[in-house]
Amino acid sequence: MAIITRLVQGKKNPNRVNLYLDDEFSFALSLDEVAKHGLKKGLVLSDDQIARLKETDQTDYVYGLLLNFLSYRPRTIKEVRDRLYKYEVREVLKQDILIGKLQSKGYLDDLAFARWFIESRNTHRPRSRLFLTAELKSKGISEEIIHSVASEVADERETITHLLDKKLGLRRKLEQVQKQKIYGYLSRQGFAWDKIAEVVKSWESE
Predict the structure, then answer these.
(1) Residues 169-186: tens digit of each pLDDT
(2) Residue 17's domain spans which residues?
(3) Helix (H) or strand (E) holding 137
(4) Per-residue pLDDT reduced to its tens digit, 107-149
(5) Cα 196 to Cα 140: distance, rounded to the nearest angstrom
(6) What is the pTM of this model?
(7) Residues 26 and 56 reside in one and the same domain
(8) Same domain, yes or no: 103 and 132
């Protein structure tokens, strides 16, 4: 058992409170948690209470790390689980609690991620439907979600045309480059040969 002898508001983060037990710093908690548990100077805490409060402190710390991780770009649930493993949070129940909290706040949404990812690829790095599907699967997006956003993938003929323009330049004639190389390049991007042939034929006629 121990007695709370001091509660000091954090200097770097005023939403955190440093708890001193028996005149020694023990751990920190959010203001909400301090209020929730009715913590105050002179309160006696059992060893079990201290252990649970320290666990809460650790959970809050990891949650803050996750918010920073999510601040750079949207993430998938799988990416967050992988990051939790890196933070040494390996119990599935604890992972589920943190992930559920992120989802409830709207910070984590696989469907929103899939739409963002497709839009980003369509705009900056055009890919075939095959490649996009593979990328989404690798990030843990379910088949159901991939199917629901399939219509948002850019038309493959437009994508092939874009890649041809980028690869060859609008003013260069296709005859100047071996067709075999062009077909090989586009097929490596995951496009079907019949679609490549259709676009190449149209591209040549223009």
Answers:
(1) 544 555 555 677 777 777
(2) 1-45
(3) helix 129-138
(4) 999 999 999 998 888 777 777 888 889 999 999 999 999 998 8
(5) 29
(6) 0.71
(7) no
(8) no
